[in-house]
Amino acid sequence: MRKLWFNNIFSFFLACPAIPYAEGCPCNDNVTLADGSPRAIRDLQVGDLVWTISDDMKTLVLSEVITMLHNVRNRIVRFHTVETVTGHRVSLTSAHYVRVSHFEYLSASQLTLNHSLYVVDKTTGNIREARIQSIKIENKQGAFNPVTLHGTLLANGIFASSYANVFGWSHETFQNMATPFRLLYYLTKYLGIHQAIWTNNDEFVWAAKPFLYLDNLNYYIPFTSMII
Predict the structure, then answer these.
(1) pTM, whole model, 2 decimals?
(2) What's domain 2-227's superfamily in CATH?
(3) Residue 167: is its pLDDT beyond 80?
(4) DSSP for 146-192?
(5) Please, are residues 130 and 119 in contact by the beta-carbon 8 Å criterion?
């Protein structure tokens, strides 16, 4: 039972090639780097510091990119393009999570015009809620899914998750499941090899696959989740 639970936890992160679709944002959506400059999501590198919003939704914080979970460059992918009354616009695959006022995280396909998203005001730089004014389905090239230490980022100024609604698991569940990856990232960064280990040049992340076969680590995730 414990072994099955362990393997299920890693299946999303480590067995992505079995998933016949991609998750994330298209190649031309942007994040904001620590110095305030924009960078296309497709160009993010391991170790980049990007702006996101704190868990209490009160302040902007920096979070480090640890890997590109999906790196799909040459495929046409269907997106839900969401625009708010403030002029913020982001494209997300149907299952990708975004933070919604009063609803925690919902997948893009669950969004309606009755929902409000958290955005960074283009004039003041303050965090605010913004009502969705339009949602349309578009086909765009590429899908890129950066994962940060916080499990969130600002995509075109809209607060979004690093995770998608796969297996029916919540954003919070995925962030807890990623605990071993964060620990390993810290270790590889300390050793100065994090760029080589976590840079993903393939369609799906591969670096942690060997852990699937380490049966003696069946207890590892619940143990680390309790102490982190």
Answers:
(1) 0.77
(2) Hedgehog/Intein (Hint) domain (2.170.16.10)
(3) no
(4) EEETTSEEEETTEEEEEEE--TT--HHHHHHHTHHHHHHHHHHHHTT
(5) yes
